Amino acid sequence: MSSHRLLLLLVAFTALLALTTAAEYNVVDYGARPDGGTDSAGAFLAAWGAACNDTGRSGSRPVLRVPAGRFLLSQAYFKGPCRSAGVVVAIDNNGTVFAPPALDSKAWIMFHHADGLAIRGGTLDGQGQEYWACKKVGNCTGQGPRTLDISQSKGVSVKQLTLLNSKVFHMAIFDCTGVTVQGIQIIAPANSPNTDGIHVSHSRHVSILNTTIGTGDDCVSLGPGTSNVLIRDIECGPGHGISIGSLGWQDGEEGVRNVTVDRAVLTGTTNGLRIKTWAMPNSGSVTNVSFSRITMNRVANPILVDQNYCPRKVDCPGNVQLGGADQQHIIHGHRGHIGDARCSEVQLQQHQPLQRDQAHEH
């Protein structure tokens, strides 16, 4: 082969590589500082804007790069729709994005209309300690934000991410389709209030896989309008277990259907598997739920079905129908508290029985 033809091939290969290599937008290049003291919100949003509008390279999604270091982020609203096929938010394994101790908002980091979003690696630290303290004494002046809020998005994946010490929910998924959460870790103290790990509502086709969650509230909670959910290979504890509900707060509220929980280990949780509906008139339903290969250790209430959830203790009977619940190969280690032989508790409204329940406990 002549040197001229070889040169042409090298040029063509280089051009092809440039077309298929993802463009990167490093937040440091937009002014972010990994010094733990400078607010980098403006730089993060500028990098997102550039990545979101990138359409120059086919076959790959642009990357928003967060390198090693500690980045203070006051608040960020990453909004689509994007011109690109999606954005990969890649946080270095030694990179931490942390919130200010005080923040009065519903959410800290928000992704909205972010189809094709992928979040990889790193740590999001909600720094909730100050907010938890004020909640305990009842003198909070504002609401605590969720750490990661993903809404109205399709084809989303969150992998190898660590979430720490959220002020309230660590991750909320709302009105999304096709979400995969895999290999993440969520950590907060057992006494931290309302710090649910992952809350899913009004969403479809959601998978939560190979995940470890220990918080002060539900490890995973499924709210109204949620369907086709797979929870597999999850470790839960401390916390309040895996929960469907609460449902039925508003009349006409959508139910929950097609939920599979498989190969879960719950340790030291208040509850194990819980279905909870408000004791209020409602025509919703919970259908086609499967719990299988579940191991529980030191769980106070391993199985709890409560159709009479009514914190104010006012007589308000519920109408949410429960049907098609299948429980197989559920292993309880040290059932309940010491001196409490109760394994499961079911509180049903007499006019709304649990239908087609199949329980196989070992």
TrEMBL record:
One of its GO terms (molecular function) is polygalacturonase activity. Its main location: secreted. Gene3D superfamilies: Single-stranded right-handed beta-helix, Pectin lyase-like. The keyword Cytoplasm does not apply. The active site is at 240. Keywords: Cell wall, Cell wall biogenesis/degradation, Glycosidase, Hydrolase, Secreted, Signal. It comes from the Eukaryota. Residues 1-22 form the signal peptide. SMART domains: PbH1 (SM00710). InterPro entries: Glyco_hydro_28 (IPR000743), PbH1 (IPR006626), Pectin_lyas_fold (IPR012334), Pectin_lyase_fold/virulence (IPR011050). GO terms for biological process: carbohydrate metabolic process; cell wall organization. The keyword Oxidoreductase does not apply. It is found in: Secreted, Cell wall. Belongs to the glycosyl hydrolase 28 family. PANTHER family: PTHR31375. This is Polygalacturonase.
